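Progress note, project year one: complex with 3,4-dihydroxybenzoic acid.
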Amino acid sequence: MIDLSVSIGSLKLKNPLLPASGTFGYGTEMMKFYDVNQYGAIITKSLTLEARSGNNMPRIAETNCGMLNSIGLANVGLDTFINKTLDTLQNITTPIIVNIAGSTIDEYVAIARQLSSLRKIKGIEVNVSCPNVKQGGMAFGTDPDITSNIVSSIRKIYDKTLIVKLSPNVTDIGIIAQSAVDAGADALSLINTVLGMRIDINTRKPLLSTITGGLSGPAIKPIALAKVFQVAKSVDVPIIGIGGITSWEDVIEFLIAGATAVEIGSLHFIDPSGPQLMLDEIKNYCRKNSIHKITELTNSLEAENND
Ligand code: DHB
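Model obtained:
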């Protein structure tokens, strides 16, 4: 028996695979295709206080080895989530983590406060890194003081698991990571999408209505891996690695670099059930390498100058 369980804050997850917010709706869409309870936990699409229809179309564009998105935080809003969406989540037995976003600190706090009283919701992932909104989002998560204010304000009223999702679009992600941890984050998830753009050369128009958007997929995996490695060395909380994970080998790579768990995103648009097939392969790898607990892999990089 290989023990795949990991701990993130006060949450014990049966395995380290989670869907990345925004690639998995509210979990119920995917339930038609396979048992989403196989995930260690699920993470729902960013939730804001009011419902949002998001940015104008087009808000998705393909690239050679990834995709650009500019969804603009389209979501049902807190009231509908609590009064309707939550009912549809009753068959989900794996822990539910809600990703939250806001354009003011008060908005984050108001959402977190209401979610904290819901027994079904086991944790929140605080999105301070959305690249596609004019107010808040990445503008917050690229500033260590604002990040600290948001996280400490939420921490005061939220005592379940609090994860902060970080942007790679900064000079030094270590500084933002430290400010989130000092303010009370239980764990960090990284990286969110990398700012990118595409242009139609015939019309000279951008392929996204917002001109720039967030790049995800295999193109960003090496960037994400390096950031996970950097942050894992500098802070003392679990890291959830995100960025272009499309195979079980990618998962192992992130764990070795310092991640305790991973989130899988763009793969859902290529092969929705792909992540579920990874668990057996991960167990095989552990067996072959005499690893009894998956946590043995975290931070296990063999490098001479790894200090
Ligand atoms: C959106 C995009 C992101 O990359 C993200 O992390 C959150 C939200 C969006 O545009 O909705």
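The mean pLDDT is 96.
Residues 22, 46, 69-73, 127, 129-132, 192-193, 214 surround 3,4-dihydroxybenzoic acid (CB under 6 Å).
No further modelling is planned for this target in the current period.
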